[in-house]
Amino acid sequence: MQSKTKYAVLALALLLAAASEAALAKDSISVTVNNATGSPVIVNNGQAVGTIQLFYTVNAYQFPIGEFATFDVNWVDNLGSPATNYGSGIAFNLLQSQQGGNVELSPDPASFTLTAAGQSGVSTVTVSITNDNEGNPPPSADGTDLVGNLKLDAGPKVGTVTNIQVHILLAHPTSCLKVYNFVTDQDFAVGMLSTTNMTVPANGAKAGKVTGTQPGQYSDNVLIANTCATDQAFDLGIVLDSSFTTNPSGNPGNAVLGYTAAGEYDTSNFNVLLSGTGTGYQQNLCLQNVSVAAGGSFLATVHSKVKDNWPQGSLPADGSFDFSASLYQNVNSGCTGPLDTLAAPNPATFTLPFTINGN
User: Residue 165 pLDDT more than 60?
Assistant: First the structure.
């Protein structure tokens, strides 16, 4: 019984001590985060005991290595009661804990000297994705969450109730850029072609060469519908079959035109885009920095034809013309580098069988 009474007295003493400490709260640091690049979701405003969390998402099949994002840590030293005696100054440090992983947090500045309540400051934190201490890259499994923790510490005289935690989630992308490649006649009167015909005379001065086609002129078309939640930009590279050339070719004129419109179109209604005013790309088959708004579509048309007097022996041996289009992730890259992982199919291809008539 005496033992229980001692425990009760001890518990009461602890409660009174805690209440007294709360009533005589020391100066404390309040923290907020803003100016964050990379569009993170930020949770907790830092005004209560806990952790500010920044949640980033990488839509890719692997994490990019290098500098990833930045954010500002804004802090203010709040007056307590009784006021803290700062003496010659108290160090306030921003230090990463659990170093050696795949997230590196680099604050600048990383340390401040506190001299009085009411003092405030800003530190810019650079977030980098790195290989680990053994040189291993981050895991590439879908849903991998990389975590880095930033400890805010002003020592025992000034309360620092908030730390900062950065999450970087790897989300394998879904194909929200829908790509269609198809060939029509140049005037879009016939619609999508399923076959075409070559005229190759057996006799005369042009024997063994293509002298005519049905239809006479073609349009290789690339349609891209952006079903992503955000605007998308890319380089678009278009490849005609080796038996084809743009029309016109080698002289002034626009063989390539680009059309944009709101709405998500496909091959069944692409001709709606043709009612707008096209942007001329001359005879360029690499369209750089093409931008398509979320929920919008882009159509590139390439007026083309079989090369003049093209030898029958140079026609594809398998009896089909092959066309392709690729979307490149890096804009203004000259249609080089990695393909855009949000596009499918990528490359987009189209096969046009042909027959040969002689006379």
Answer: yes
CA angle (325 as vertex; 343, 291 as ends), nearest 5? 55
pLDDT bin (cut points 50, 70, 90) of residue 13 is very low
Residues 285, 240 contacting (CB under 8 angstroms): yes
The average pLDDT across 332-354 equals: 95
Q: What is the rounded distance in angstroms from the CA atom of residue 199 to the CA atom of residue 270?
A: 30
Rounded-to-integer distance, Cα 173 and Cα 176, Å: 8
Report d(CA 297, CA 223) in Å as an integer.
7
Of 200, 203, 249, 219, give the one whose Cα is nearest residue 350.
219
Which segment, 47-56, 59-68, 319-328, is predicted with the most confidence on average?
319-328
Supply the pLDDT for residue 337. Answer: 94
- Of 227, 226, 228, 168, the closest CA to residue 39 belongs to 168
Q: CA–CA separation, 291 vs 138, rounded Å?
A: 31
Query: Rounded to an integer, what is the distance from CA 321 to the centroid of its chain?
Result: 34
Q: Output phi, psi for 107, to 5 deg.
A: -80, 145
Other CB atoms closer than 10 Å to residue 186's CB: what's the count?
19
Residue 29 near residue 161, CB atoms below 8 Å = yes
The model's pTM is 0.57
- In the chain, what is the straight-line distance between the N-terminal and C-terminal CA atoms, in Å? 119
Task: Write out the two tokens for 184.
Answer: 């029509």
Least confident interval from 168-182, 193-207, 226-240, 278-292:
168-182
Identify the CA nearest to 273 among candidates 256, 295, 258: 258
With vertex at residue 248, the alpha carbon angle to CA 247 and CA 254, rounded to the nearest 5 degrees, is 100
Residue 7 parent element (H or E): helix 2-23
Nearest 10 degrees: CA dihedral of 134, 140, 144, 150?
Answer: 40
Residue type, 227: T
What burial class does residue 72 get, using C-beta atoms within 10 Å of its C-beta: 0-12 exposed, 13-18 middle, 19+ buried? middle
Residue 6's H or E segment, with its range, is helix 2-23
Closest CA to 40 of 55, 23, 62: 55
